[in-house]
Amino acid sequence: MHPAFHSLPDPGFCRQLLPGFRITFPAICPVFSYGHIKHFDSDLDAMKNDHQASLMQIRNTRSYLNTGNPFFLFSQPETEIPYPDPARLKSLLDDKIIVSILPLLHEQSRFQNTEKSPLRTNKKRKSTPMH
């Protein structure tokens, strides 16, 4: 017998669990489904709100990196900057080493529409024949 089969449970043990499974699975499924259905709309709304907050955080961070104006960090609600302490965020964004590893936030900010971003291209790649 292959060594991987030694870790499988004994078939007799599985047969002992089957009656309990037949009772609990049908009882748990509706409860589980109801919970997901009930919370789906509120979870979707929360995801949309989080997405909007993330976009504002990116906008404010880009604006600060481009202008150096602390207004974009200190005059915003806490949810619109990506760090709870604006002074600490400013000190992190002023650090040239940290800015050098950021994903082009400071260079990309002149593009309002991400479709025009230098990180995205609408050009089709030339296909090369496979040999």
Report on the structure:
- The protein has 131 residues and is mainly α.
- It is built from 5 helices and no strands.
- The protein has a domain of 75 residues.
- The C terminus is likely disordered.
Question: Distance between the terminal alpha carbons, to the nearest Å?
Answer: 43 Å
**SSE run:** HHHHH
Query: Number of helical segments?
Result: 5
Query: Can you summarize the main beta sheet?
Result: none
Radius of gyration, whole Å:
26 Å
Level of helix content? 55-70%
Return residue spans where pLDDT drops below 50 for at least 5 consecutive residues: 106-131
Shape: elongated
Number of strands: 0
Mean pLDDT: 77
- Classify the secondary structure makeup into a structural class: mainly alpha
Quick overview:
By secondary structure, the chain is mostly helical. It is 60% helix and 0% strand. The chain has a domain at 43-117.
What labels would you give this structure?
60% helix, disordered C terminus, 5 helices, 131 residues, mainly alpha, elongated
Layout of helices and strands:
Elements: H1 11-67, H2 71-74, H3 86-93, H4 96-101, H5 105-108
